[in-house]
What does this fold into?
Amino acid sequence: MADPIVSLRKIGKTFPGVRALSDVSFEIAQGELHAICGENGAGKSTLMKILSGVISDYDGELFVSGQLAQFRGTRDAESASISIIHQELNLVEQLSVAANIFLGRELRNSMGLRSDREMEQAAKKLLEDLETDIDPRALAGSLRVGDQQLVEIAKALSLKSQILIMDEPTSALTESEVARLYRVIAKLRERGTTILYISHKMDEVFQLSNRITVLRDGCFIRTLETSETNAGEITKWMVGRELESLELGERSEPGEVILEVKNLSLVWPGHARGYRLKDISFHLRRGEVLGIAGLMGAGRTELMECLFGAAEQTVQGAMLLEGKPYRPSHPEDACQAGIALVTEDRKRLGIFSAMNVGQNISICSLKETLRAGLLNRTMEQDASSSMVSKLQVKTAGLESAITSLSGGNQQKCIVGRWLLTQPKILLLDDPTRGVDVGAKSELYRLINKLCQDGLGVIVTSSELPELLTLSDRILVLSEGRMTAEFRRDDATQEKIMHAATQGWQ
It folds into this structure.
């Protein structure tokens, strides 16, 4: 191994009620791509936050380039040429893309005044390196999650750090965007950049990394040469056991049509195309999983928002729910009709960061716990506890801060929240984003069980193998239009990608 650029010695960190890291020690070689693997809650993100200066209070010692490092914040880490791309997006939505990229490091002209023009030009160059046409002047809050992720990546690249931490950088990206990121990573490697790469996707880990370090329950398990191991062995070390192959088994034949959508359209004011969705028609049966595939910008999330009454513009076309006209003007209408949505943007639209775990789970079903007009705390806690147990949420307790949980466990809480409302239709927008392989299996089995109980499920995903595993049928969107529909037996990744890349004139 080349001389280590980072040495971690007996690193430990405790949050209230949770020991996140315990005596973690290993080294990272200069210029390598070092993958960090582990289940949700294994301590990966906590360790990376220590290395990037986000967390400054911890046990143990951190050495960078042979020198003891004691970062008091991210600025200290950046001064040591370390930057991080967080799994959870940290953009200021009210500022432009360019302003976010250079936030706190604003470019100035010869008179010392902030130069928006120079920042926009520099941001445009960074985004071009990522092969994306995001407008540097656009507000960050107006972008979809995948584009926001690319802005986060551009922000990190602007620092030109020698050590770059990537925490689930592809979690919200489509396959074509992932391919672009791989090309950027190759360029960084050529420059000698050291990359620490956290991912739950084994194909990424084995395609990109030189070595893999496995963490489990906050402890260091082992470091292996990528060329000397395989995905099955890594998964075994991650979960502490052999992970059985995922067999969902045969589902019963779907029942009657519960939702019918006819010629659904959504206008796009100011855009040359004029629409986000155009003439979308489909149906959903009870006990069926309907997958929605498409590249970024195809309209997957917009379709979910239309069904949930959360579209920004007026929805055109007709929808029938259980044979009756259905036109939600607000998410409350959808909830009352028995439709629930797990959003793709967990941090911004999913969790309530000021509330604890129990409150995050129970918030949509509080009416069920009212007695004589008053909230029955015991019933509320019992309902939340049942979901924590059912979904195997790793938490110190219902009173724990939701932000203290890993991303995957936060996602389980959101799913549990909606299951408590006993919906007829569950909309899942990229539900396993940032969720580890073990938790994915649990969610897949849960979805399968819900379908056996007669629930209708519509799911989008940026991972085609996931859609092929879960779906009875798959609809493909391209530029806001539906280009294909496949039954499970007929669908392949190649067919779906072909349909997803068909443009409309």
